[in-house]
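Hey, I'm writing a tutorial for new members on how sequence and structure tokens pair up, and I'd like a real worked example in the thread rather than a made-up one. If someone can provide the structure for the chain below, I'll link this post from the tutorial.
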Amino acid sequence: MKIVYFDVENYEEEFLNNNNRGKYEYYLDSNTLNDMLPVKDEYKDAEIISVFTSSRVNRKVLEQFKNLKLIALRSVGFNHIDIDYCKENNIAVVNSPGYGNVTVAEFALALLLDVCRKVTVSYNNYKEGKVLPQNLIGTELCGKTAGIVGLGAIGAAFARIAYGLDMKILAYDKFEKEEMKQKYNVKYTDFDTLLKESDFISIHAPLTRDNYHMFNKSSFEKMKNTAIIVNTGRGELIDTKALYDALVTKQIAGAGLDVLESEETIADFDYMIGLNRLDKATLEKTIINSQLFKLDNVIITPHTAFNSIEAINRILNITMANINEFSKGNLQNSVI
């Protein structure tokens, strides 16, 4: 069985070599998989590919793999994969659930604290010798209302942390969990109420066809002008232009973002040298993203909320287990 691992970081190589050597024909490639570059000829007959969220695996990419049977995701989310093509061509897609529940929740809190207490702003001002205490006045989390959008495993972990900080907790989710109500005083509510009553909003929902741009111009108009939004879910849950406008006009107070729409165009060299190949909508989002970086009330990190030693080990172990089971004729953690 032939496997190609894309998006491979240096710290993943030892594990992948140890767990593939002698079992599979395999290749480790540090490049992302996207339609900017053709697939190498020696990869095209692979039966399995494994990618991280930085790859964009659309129909144009998948058509180059003539023998593909499985996509093993080193992530939970799968919106970067053309699921319709996979269904049409009997390609299984499996993910790595549960690897980063606590890790991502802790990072969301870190973003929130950074924006609330102006940690990065304070550091930059201090480094530049421009410390003005009146410009660094922050706000406490204790006693405030945290609105959690998506109370799955990560959202639940964030709720436990918020409860420990003596915060009031509102939640918007299709499924209500009695345990969350009893143990952490979570109050489930509708989306509009959460927008209007929350001091801080943390997004932990998966991206679906139904919630694309759920945070839009209308949403931001309903929020408090002191509110701070944190997104460690998916960038497409927020309308980038609407967010930028809300921040610039002080409709909301700040944002902590680990994910952005069209985030792959920011750091991927293939995109940076090929901006003329981007469609108009993607190019517009890329430009707005560059403007977000200039705002003092925004913290942006490079989709790194998952990135802890513990979570990386869990990702690799789950991915390898998924592949091993598939080689035996079993399918686990399927997303389609």
